[in-house]
Structures are given as C-alpha cells and as structure tokens.
Amino acid sequence: MYSRSSEPVRLERDCTAVLVPQGDVVTLPAGSIGYITQALGGSYTVFIEGNLFRIAGQDGDAIGKEPAEPLSLPDDASDDAVEKLVWQQLRTCFDPEIPINVVDLGLVYEANVTHGDDGKRLVEVKMTLTAPGCGMGEILVDDVRSKLEMIPTVAEADVELVFDPPWSRNMMSESAKLETGML
C-alpha cells in the first residue's frame, strides 16, 4: 500500500473522500494520519487506517496541497486547439489504484469536440473500465467530465461508459504495458 517514499500526511480539516475500490463517499475526520500513495492528475490517493481513499484536487488543502492552476485558452481557440487540450486533460485522469492515466490504459475509446445548437462547444467521450464491476467507475466518469468542463470554451462534457468492445490489456499503450510489467 505505501512505501518509505510515501509522503506522510495529517488531515487539517474534515475532508470528503472516496473509498477505493468500493467508490463509497465518506468524510475523513480532521487529525487523521496516513500516507499519500499516489499524487497524479491533481487528485491524491491516501492510505489511512488500512484503507485507500481518493481525495479530489479541490480538497488538497486538507492535506496541505495547493490547488492546480486554472486552464487557459484563447477565446478564439480553434476546435483543434480545444481537442488537443481535451486529450491533455484526459491524461490527467487516473485510476486511484493504477498509476497510469485513462488514455494510456486504453480506457478512452473516443473524444470528439462538437458544437451545440447555441454554438457552444461540447465534448463527447466514450470510455470503458478495466472491469465492468469496478466500484470506481462512476468516480472515474465524473473525474473525466469535471476535468473536461474545466476547459475554457467547453460548455458541457458528455461521458458515456461503454463495455463494447470489452477492455483488454492489449488496449494499453506500450509505455503503460512497460510500467505495469505487462510488456
């Protein structure tokens, strides 16, 4: 769960967190002591009292972390520039148990930038999970949606969870396979 390189933390205030892998939302009390086991994509996985919890970036102050800088994009940015930022944002979404982003894990099947009737940009994503019964599924979908909606000029992100085709390790990038020892 944690190693000597894991950063010790003490919660400075009550904090909402998600129990991993069940996906249950809980409140961790101020004063809880644990270790950061993963700090990727602006969220934190912490090990406290024998359990893993995911703390969202906006609650990072509870463990002494600064929030990320807001995204910026020119008002006249092209759809191509927005799509590039969409893929960058998708690479900041991580499974709390696996230190690899959802793109390199092969969980994102497609991401498209479109325009609504009012001309505002919409992002449509189709993604899957490594296992259909994953308790973190809705948490990952919400993480993808909220990070895409942080992009300036994006009015809404529609994230659809699909299971066809089923995920397999063959969908992982070469670097992800190498990192997990599956190459």
Describe what this molecule looks like in 3D:
The chain is α+β, with helices and mostly antiparallel strands and 183 residues long. 17% of the residues lie in helices and 31% in strands. It has three helices and nine strands. The chain has helices at 79-90, 137-148, 174-180; strands at 7-10, 15-20, 25-28, 33-40, 43-48, 51-55, 108-115, 121-127, 154-161. It has a six-stranded antiparallel β-sheet with strand order 1-4-5-6-2-3, with no helix packed on it. Strands 7-8-9 form a three-stranded mixed β-sheet, with helices on one face. Strand 7 and strand 8 (121-127) form a beta hairpin. The longest helix is centred in the middle third of the chain and has 12 residues, at 79-90. The chain is globular and about 50 Å long. The two termini are 23 Å apart. The model has no long low-confidence stretch (mean pLDDT 91).
Overall mean pLDDT score?
91
Question: Would you list the SSEs in sequence order as H and E?
Answer: EEEEEEHEEHEH
Q: In total, how many beta strands?
A: 9
Span of the ends, CA to CA: 23 Å
Structural class based on helices, strands and sheet pairing: alpha+beta
Major beta-sheet overview: 6 strands, antiparallel
Oligomer: single chain
- State which percent range the strand residues make up: 25-35%
Helix content: 10-25%
Instruction: Determine Rg (CA atoms, Å).
Output: 17 Å
Unreliable residue stretches:
none
User: Globular, elongated, flat, extended or rod-shaped: what is the shape?
Assistant: globular
Count of helical stretches: 3
Strand order of the largest sheet: 1-4-5-6-2-3
